[in-house]
Write a structure and sequence with these properties.
The complex is a heterodimer of chains A (277) and B (257).
Chain A lengths: L1 H45 L10 H11 L3 H33 L2 H14 L8 H8 L3 H25 L3 H9 L4 H39 L4 H10 L3 H29 L4 H8 L1
Helix pairs in contact in A: 2-10, 3-6, 3-8, 5-6, 6-8, 8-9, 8-10, 9-10
Chain B lengths: L1 H24 L10 H12 L3 H33 L1 H16 L6 H8 L3 H25 L3 H9 L4 H38 L5 H10 L3 H29 L1 H12 L1
Classes of the chains: A mainly alpha (277), B mainly alpha (257).
Chain lengths: 277, 257
């Protein structure tokens, strides 16, 4: 009898373990967020900070939900995302063009190396005053800053990507008398793609940050400007609601770009490895 | 000869660009674009005097404090989250969300909560710089070499010695990569926080010049930011190479075989 009950116990334990393995991350993750909200609530109500300046989640979340019904809120999201999308698109196209030209010639690559490496670490936000002078509080200011930052991120990935073409593969292709067009299609493009996708994913995150930043400082209409407005109107719950909104937008962008990356790179080792694990 | 050629190639394009810039602005083309010679002398005038002490140093100090705090907190939390599974499960979604918030948008809130002072700027910098270090540390701790991990297990390497001799060195290439990213992010956040609300600092001065439509002065500040960005990134690369000498050697050896 003991062996039967022991076996049953073992089965139950392994079932529990299986359940834990499958749903553990979800349970714990939800728990983590609930705990964080609780800490925030308790700190906001009993903590040393002025309650008016740090509203508890029980005030912020209703404000957030209420803002979902306001057209003003959606217009601001639309404005921010328009700048984000346009800026990102301009950066991708221009960086791809420049990167392809520089990357495909060894001479150009060597000669431009120092300039590219010098211009890249220059913080784009330094140019915000220039953008403000040139464009005023209009979308052009956002685009200028976004493009300046994202262009370098992508262009460097493109240059590295082209340079990374496997030597043996290239020589094999040449020995096989592969034409220029096929060479680009089957050799250069597949090598470049993972680099390009990485660059675009990074740039997508940076573009959102910069769009919001320019709106905040220059006053271009959008979510960042709304936050500044809420500060002037002395409405901390609205500020926190907007911050939550930008966080959700950031997650959404991250999620979408990851999804696209997995789709486009389904054949690449990094993605296949993820599936297997 | 070789090194001479190398140097020539390095400086050729920058010199061409500067000559082009000089030629195009020689006749005072645009109100917004400064001339190279004027910009250079303005740069010396504006930054190489008293302001070096009253504005540049405080800015760099804030950046340094923010980076040090981010590094300590990032590595500490990262090692904990990376090595304990339930902590990782507990915090992962929360961190995913917090990381997605553009840290610049926190500036108005922190302004209310903390006020216009150095603490506010340091908090902004930490809120942005923490993530690259934290995430890279977690990744580094989790992707420790399997053989190393098993060996440490067999020798009952635990606690502090294990942390210092196995975990941290193993994760250090990724941790340093995270710190390198954080330096760039930190500079950005420093400037933005100073532009939004400050009484001194590089960002504050650039914004101040812009408001007074002092275009060459404003440009000189932007040039200073550029130089700082380049110097910080180059300086850290040197440190990184130094600390990770063993790692690069290891990689080279692996490539040879």
């Amino acid at each position: 009898m003991t062996t039967v009950s022991q076996a049953q116990a073992a089965v139950a334990q392994s079932k529990r373990r299986y359940w834990w393995h499958k749903y553990g991350p979800l349970t714990m993750g939800v728990l983590g967020i609930v705990l964080a909200l609780l800490v925030w609530q308790v700190y906001a109500v009993f903590g040393p900070v002025n309650r008016h300046h740090l509203p508890p989640p029980t005030e912020v979340i209703p404000t957030f939900l209420r803002s979902l019904t306001l057209s003003e809120f959606w217009v601001a999201i639309g404005q921010t995302m328009t700048a984000w999308a346009l800026g990102l698109a301009i950066s991708i196209v221009s960086a791809l063009l420049v990167g392809l030209v520089i990357g495909s010639s060894r001479v150009l690559r060597v000669w431009t190396h120092s300039t590219v490496e010098f211009l890249r670490p220059i913080p784009a936000v330094g140019l915000i005053p220039v953008a403000a002078l040139l464009f005023g509080p209009r979308i052009g200011a956002e685009l200028m800053i976004i493009v300046f930052a994202c262009f370098w991120i992508i262009v460097i990935q493109v240059i590295y990507g082209i340079a990374d073409v496997d030597k043996v593969a290239r020589e094999t292709a040449r020995t096989m008398r592969m034409g220029q067009v096929d060479m680009v299609k089957y050799l250069v493009f597949p090598t470049l793609l993972p680099y390009l996708v990485t660059g675009i994913r990074l740039a997508a995150t940076v573009a959102l940050i910069l769009a919001v930043t320019v709106e905040l400082i220059v006053g271009t209409p959008g979510l960042g400007h709304q936050v500044a407005q809420a500060q002037i109107n002395d409405s901390p719950p609205a500020m926190f609601a907007l911050i939550i909104t930008t966080g959700l937008l950031g997650i959404l962008i991250n999620f979408v770009t990851r999804f696209i990356a997995n789709r486009v790179l389904f054949w690449h080792a990094s993605v296949r490895g993820e599936v297997r694990a | 000869m070789r090194t001479l050629r190398q140097i020539a190639i390095w400086v050729a394009l920058p010199i061409i660009l500067i000559i082009l810039w000089w030629a195009l602005t020689a006749r005072g083309a645009s109100f917004f674009v400064p001339q190279p010679a004027g910009l250079f002398s303005k740069f010396i005038d504006v930054w190489m005097g008293e302001r070096l002490l009253t504005d540049v140093l405080p800015s760099l100090g804030r950046l340094a404090v923010g980076l040090v705090i981010s590094t300590i907190v990032g590595i500490g939390l990262g090692v904990l989250i990376g090595s304990v599974r339930w902590v990782r499960w507990l915090l992962e979604p929360l961190l995913e969300f917090l990381r997605a918030i553009p840290s610049t948008i926190m500036i108005p809130v922190l302004l209310l909560l903390i006020g216009i002072n150095d603490t506010m700027k340091v908090v902004v910098i930490v809120l942005g710089c923490l993530w690259p270090i934290l995430l890279n540390t977690i990744e580094g701790v989790r992707s420790l070499d399997e053989v190393l991990k098993n060996t440490a297990d067999i020798y009952r390497f635990k606690g502090w010695p294990r942390l210092v001799f196995v975990t941290l060195p193993g994760a250090s290439p990724l941790i340093l990569a995270g710190i390198r990213q954080s330096i760039a992010v930190g500079l950005i956040l420093l400037v933005v926080s100073e532009m939004f609300a400050a009484t001194d600092g590089i960002g504050y001065l650039i914004m101040n010049f812009q408001n007074r439509v002092a275009i060459p002065e404003m440009w000189s500040g932007i040039v200073l930011l550029g130089i700082l960005g380049v110097m910080l990134s180059a300086g850290f690369q040197l440190i990184e190479k130094r600390i990770l000498r063993w790692y690069y050697g290891l990689k080279e050896a692996a490539n040879d075989s």
